[in-house]
Design goal:
The protein is α/β, with parallel strands linked by helices. It is 35% helix and 13% strand. The protein is built from 17 helices and 20 strands. It has a six-stranded mixed beta sheet, covered by helices on one side. Strands 11-20-19-18-17-16 form a six-stranded parallel beta sheet. Strands 1-9 form a two-stranded antiparallel ribbon. A hairpin with a 3-residue loop joins strand 5 and strand 6. Helix 13 packs across helix 14, helix 14 runs antiparallel to helix 15 and helix 16 runs antiparallel to helix 17. The longest helix has 21 residues. The radius of gyration is 27 Å and the shape is globular. It starts with a helix and ends in a 28-residue tail after the last helix.
């Protein structure tokens, strides 16, 4: 069957789903291994009737992170049971005392053996013997993460958002006296800043990248001297007047500030000089510096750059060679630094000549997932990896994005993914990436990706974004976690026990309908969220009504109302229901939607700009036009 014929068949199938002739399967597998609750085979009672004989023990001079671990454990045990455990050092107790021991102490001798050299970075061990509970990481940050895992998995504490924590109340705290677990993260580098995040929330969700905040009390975080777009700082734009040769040559032979010419050795010299200055003037303990081009595709077309593209089979070649040389020039003076660069837009394809390797201290940050469809498996769908032709959109083009990632891992010792959580162009609308987050991240882990950096959970009140950000942290830490379990755990707390099942059905239906009728991309127009036959739209309206009238708290109702606005926004864009063009009061209904969105803190329908003032809005237009 020809590609065009396949695309035609697929297009007809989509029409049948849109019109309701075919019914989308709403049984969604969100991935991961089934959640298994911690069991108690040999009871160990830490608190009984609100009182405890246990103390919290650290080494003689604990560092700031260990002190935080002590404080967090004390605080939440007291919140749960009313008992505040005394904090002491190793010289104040004996092995006969009941104790929770944090980090490395002399109390281990003769009781337990913990080989910290065999624990991965940020990993930890949790061991109990009926009288002692040891929580110890490869370092103090690992110990802190161990405390958070203990509070979550054994005592039931949850940190769903920076503002929403759930702490059970129980005068008795009982755990298993025969625990012996080693826990290690799936990715060594993890970042996902949700709206309102802070050092404490990053640590509680085990995110160890902040870019700028050092978070010393919470184990420290990966920070940068320079991050994101940096070439304009390393090679300032105003140099084009005296040194036009530093900058990119266009196809017409003119010079442009859009990029620099990375094959010019003088560019390397000025970049190294400015990088050295930035490192020495940096006020934090940052050990990372980044090579980041401007966000465009006007890469250099000078003869030497073109020769490198041809020789290595990719526009990324000069970037790799430049970053390697950049690292070599600075490595002697700053031997513990890591040098990262963006593989983005024109540079996201790895060289076809895999003999071109990255230095061990050079790490590509791979941004190619912005081209990937999020409503279908990464290894199967290539719909946006090329031109948006009929055959591309409805056919079965060869997916290449995941193969690019595999090849990057062959030429670099470490590789980080720079991923996106929402549709930038349409943040207010449902984004169907929940089903394949786990399988995508597990794929990345399995091919050897070592870090996962998420962007755009930051600050956006996007549809179900609080849920999305919670799940992203869970999966980054453990790619095999039970996503369905974590979804329901979150929904019950955030939207209320009675509303949660309805919200879950809504998410399932929208996920299923998008999958059969459209694709979900990080940058896409207003029809991106799929098409709904009339009976499905009516069913969704009914589920939203049940969620909105459920017996829940005022705060949970506000959260349901906020989430519901994404559905109302979609209907207004599609001229559905009360927003139909046949309704003479349509503009009034859209104006009411505008008011409600602002009342619920939604100030953007696009990630790129705020919603304009009311007097600038034409309420006869789609709300999509507000962004």
């Amino acid at each position: 069957m020809s590609a065009f014929l396949k695309a035609t068949v697929a297009f007809i199938e989509v029409i049948l789903y849109i019109t309701g002739v075919f019914t989308a399967d709403t049984t969604i597998n969100y991935g991961g291994n089934e959640y298994v609750a911690q069991k108690i085979s040999a009871p160990m009672e830490i608190v009984e009737n609100g009182a405890s004989d246990f103390v919290i023990v650290t080494e003689e001079n604990p560092d700031a992170t260990t002190k935080t671990a002590v404080n967090e454990l004390q605080t939440y045990i007291e919140k749960i049971s009313g008992a505040k455990l005394k904090a002491v050092t190793e010289n104040e107790v004996t092995a006969e005392d009941k104790a929770i021991i944090l980090g490395e102490t002399k109390l281990e001798k003769g009781i337990v053996e913990i080989n910290r050299k065999k624990i991965a970075t940020d990993g930890f061990k949790i061991i109990s013997d009926g009288k002692h509970l040891f929580i110890s990481g490869a370092d103090s940050r690992g110990t802190l993460y161990g405390v958070y895992t203990f509070l979550e998995e054994y005592l039931g504490v949850r940190w769903f958002t920076p503002e929403l924590e759930v702490v059970p109340e129980n005068e008795d705290i009982l755990i298993d006296g025969k625990i012996n677990r080693t826990v290690e993260p799936s990715f060594s580098i993890r970042r996902n800043d949700c709206r309102g995040t802070n050092d404490a929330h990053r640590a509680r969700t085990k995110m160890n990248v902040s870019f700028w905040q050092e978070a010393k009390d919470y184990g420290g975080a990966l920070t940068y001297v320079l991050w994101d777009v940096t070439l304009d700082k390393l090679v300032p734009d105003d140099l084009i007047t005296e040194h036009p040769d530093y900058f990119a040559t266009t196809a017409e032979g003119t010079k442009t500030r859009d990029h620099v010419c990375l094959s010019n050795p003088d560019v390397l010299k000025i970049a190294v000089k400015n990088a050295r200055k930035a490192i020495l003037e940096c006020e934090t303990d940052a050990k990372y510096i980044h090579i980041g081009q401007k966000d465009n595709t006007n890469y250099c077309k000078c003869k030497k750059c073109e020769e490198l593209y041809e020789k290595y089979g990719s526009v990324s070649a000069p970037t790799i060679l430049f970053t390697n040389a950049f690292a070599d020039a600075l490595d002697d003076e700053f031997p513990d630094f890591t040098f990262t660069f963006y593989a983005y837009n024109e540079t996201d394809r790895p060289p076809t000549d895999l003999s071109l390797k990255c230095n061990d201290n050079v790490v590509p940050v791979l941004c190619g997932l912005h081209k990937a469809c999020r409503s279908h498996p990464l290894t199967e769908c290539g719909s946006k990896d090329g031109n948006e032709t009929f055959e591309n959109l409805f056919g079965s083009p060869e997916p290449t994005i995941h193969k690019d990632f595999e090849n990057w891992t062959k030429i670099a010792k470490r590789t980080y993914i720079y991923d996106y959580t929402i549709n930038f162009i349409n943040t207010a609308q449902f984004f169907s990436n929940l089903e394949y987050m786990q399988s995508t991240m597990k794929y990345m882990h399995d091919i050897g990706i070592t870090g996962y950096i998420y962007n755009c959970g930051d600050g956006h009140i996007a549809a179900f974004n609080e849920l999305r950000n919670y799940l992203l942290c869970k999966i980054q830490w453990d790619v095999n976690c039970d996503v369905e379990y974590h979804i329901m755990d979150f929904l019950k707390a955030y939207y209320g026990e009675e509303a949660a099942p309805y919200i879950k059905q809504i998410i399932d239906i929208q996920t299923a309908q998008t999958k059969v009728s459209a694709h979900a991309f990080d940058f896409d127009w207003h029809y991106q969220a799929g098409f709904y036959p009339m009976n499905v739209a009516v069913a969704l309206d009914g589920l939203w009504e049940k969620a909105l009238t459920a017996d829940i708290t005022e705060e949970q109702l506000f959260n349901v109302e906020t989430a519901n606005l994404s559905w109302e926004y979609y209907k207004a864009n599609q001229f559905l229901d009360k927003y139909t063009i046949l309704n003479p009061f349509r503009h009034k209904r859209i104006e009411e939607l505008y008011d409600s969105m602002l009342e619920h803190g939604i100030t953007k329908v696009s990630g790129f700009q705020e919603i304009p003032p009311k007097d600038e809005i034409n309420f006869m237009q789609r709300p999509y036009n507000w962004g």
